[in-house]
Each structure stands twice: as C-alpha cells, then as structure tokens.
Write the structure tokens for this entry.
Amino acid sequence: MALKATIYKAELSIADMDRNYYETHQLTMARHPSETDERMMVRLVAFAIHANDALTFTKGLFDVEEPDLWHKDLTGAIELSIEVGQPDEKVILKACGRSEHVYVYSYSATSHIWWKGLANKVERCKNLTVVDLPADATEQLGKMAQRTMQLQCTIQDGQIWLTDGTTTVEIARKVLKSER
C-alpha cells in the first residue's frame, strides 16, 4: 500500500520591502511521505521570496519531471523554476533548458560539499541562481511546521524573518551563484 501525502495549510502574509510586495496567500501544500518538515518549510520560504499570483507548488517529489515550485506564463512556458535541496547536475541543466529563470535553494550543513562538486558543471548556466540557507535557521523552520499555520514573512535588505506569532526565525541568504 502506497503512503499518501500529508496536507498542510498555511495562511502566509508577506511584507517584502525589497520588491514592494504585500499580500496574504492561502496555501495548500502536499508533503510527500519522504519529505521532512524542514524541506517543506524551505519550500514555503522559497514561495515567500518569489511570491506572485502565478507561482504554484508542483507535484515536486511525486513527479521528478517537475520542480518544487514554478511560475508559468499564459502560454504554458516556464518563467521561473525553483528547486529545493541538493539537486544533481542533470536536474539543474534540464531546468535551465526549460525555464527562463532557475533558482536552487540548498539548506543542508553539507551544502558546501555539494556545491563544490557541482559549481564547475553548472557554471555555463546563465539563467541559474543558487542560494544557500543556513542549516540552523532551516532546522528551526522545520520545528514551526504545523498542519494548519498562520505565518508572517518579512523581507527587507535581503534578510528574511518568518514568524508564527510565537517563534521568529531569521534567515540570511548566501548567494553561491547568480544569474548573468
């Protein structure tokens, strides 16, 4: 018998001073049985960073052909593809070939090892941005995961704060590679 996804619902209020974006989103996320709370919350943070009305969670771990999030234009072309974790070279190169912009958010204590082995292989990808999130912050995010959440996210000067009213986590992004 196959395990089913666990459904999480979040009301996410975003105040992004860097982009002048202020919205509240009602989100439904399916957490794959093999996915951790930490990874799911990193997906939620990635949503907050890039939020707009067309950004959606995909089948992600349920379908290896899809990224974790994407933004498609009205023709179905992928404008933005977002991967979470430490995808391999083939996944990144395929995403860069299919999407206008690709972001990878790594969050493990071993991200530097993963990136060292991958950096030269994806250097030619002009539409790729790779961002490392501190492992201690993402571990705290994982502890905030609840089946129903009310969260506020503030983004200012590149810094991110996510709070559930009780706990606040500050997330500093480290850009390992940016689009050229």
Remarks:
- The first strand starts at residue 6 and ends at 16.
- The chain has one domain: 6-177.
- The chain is about 25% helix and 40% strand.
